[in-house]
Design brief:
elongated; antibiotic resistance; transmembrane helix; 278 residues; 68% helix; 2 strands; 1% strand; mainly alpha; single chain; 10 helices
Length: 278
């Protein structure tokens, strides 16, 4: 008698990652409060700043200037990416860890790579939807002229992708900082708010104190906002930047450096279970 051993092969990590992406997107849209906040926040903030600062046709910069809605759109795009990636993941993963979901998932045959690919894919999908809604609102409601050249949209694409990657990996790495899921929002949200205030999201970056500009230049949000400004503002607006140029090379290098650093930190510090589980 011969014994035939049958091996059950699991799909590859990429295929499982795509499945996890579908799961992550569905889970995200079931959390209605998170959906409303992440999707509506950039649009609401753009409306507030465009309305308050743009009264009586006021503009930014030397005459004829740039309408406030157009100037603040890049910052809102950058902060939207940060909300969808860094803030969303840093909080949601901490909650999953705290309620034991990560521990149970780690005990299944699912490769860890598939789990993280699912997170990245989910962030990418939600960021695309959020960005499309914000661009539509800016063009249709506030009359912002969108770019018309392939070069501008190519710049938009790489800033968007690098910003999303950096934000996602930073969110995964930072998710180990909160001690519990309940404290995650209190730990993560202040970090996001501070970065928004010092990174040229709510104010003209060149008008901020020099020490604040230097601090902001260490973090990716400032570079995402600057990269987006290079897409949606006229070419001569780069003279308003601290360096006098858009610094595309520095933007790409710093966003990539944050993504790599966050990946290395995340690999060493990511936990599948709570601290008190040993």
């Amino acid at each position: 008698m011969s014994v035939v051993d049958t091996e059950v092969r699991l799909p590859g990590a990429l295929r499982l990652g795509l499945g996890r992406t579908v799961y992550e997107v569905r889970t995200f849209f079931r959390e209605r409060d998170a959906v409303v906040f992440i999707f509506a926040y950039p649009v609401i903030m753009l409306a507030i700043f465009a309305t308050v600062f743009g009264q009586d046709g006021a503009t930014v910069g030397p005459p004829p200037g740039i309408p406030f809605a157009q100037y603040f759109l890049p910052g809102m795009l950058a902060t939207g990416i940060m909300l969808s990636s860094f803030q969303n993941l840093a909080i949601s993963i901490a909650v999953e860890r705290d309620d034991g979901g990560l521990k149970r998932l780690h005990g299944t045959p699912l490769p860890p790579a598939a789990y993280f690919l699912g997170k990245l894919g989910g962030v990418l999908v939600t960021s695309i939807v959020q960005t499309a809604l914000l661009l539509a609102a800016a063009a249709l409601v506030f009359g912002v002229d969108l770019p018309t050249t392939a070069t501008a949209w190519a710049t938009f694409a790489w800033v968007f992708l690098l910003g999303t990657a950096a934000g996602t990996l930073c969110g995964v790495a930072f998710s180990s900082v909160p001690r519990t899921g309940r404290s995650a929002t209190a730990v993560v949200t202040p970090v996001v708010l501070v970065l928004q205030f010092i990174s040229g999201v709510f104010f003209v970056f060149n008008d901020l104190p020099s020490w604040m500009q230097q601090v902001a230049s260490v973090f990716p949000l400032k570079w995402m906002a600057q990269g987006m400004r290079s897409v949606f503002l006229p070419a001569d607006a780069q003279s308003w930047e601290v360096s006098g140029s858009w610094q595309h090379g520095a933007t790409a290098a710093i966003l990539l450096a944050w993504a790599v650093a966050a990946l290395l930190v995340g690999v060493r510090t990511f936990r599948w279970q709570r601290r008190d589980d040993g």
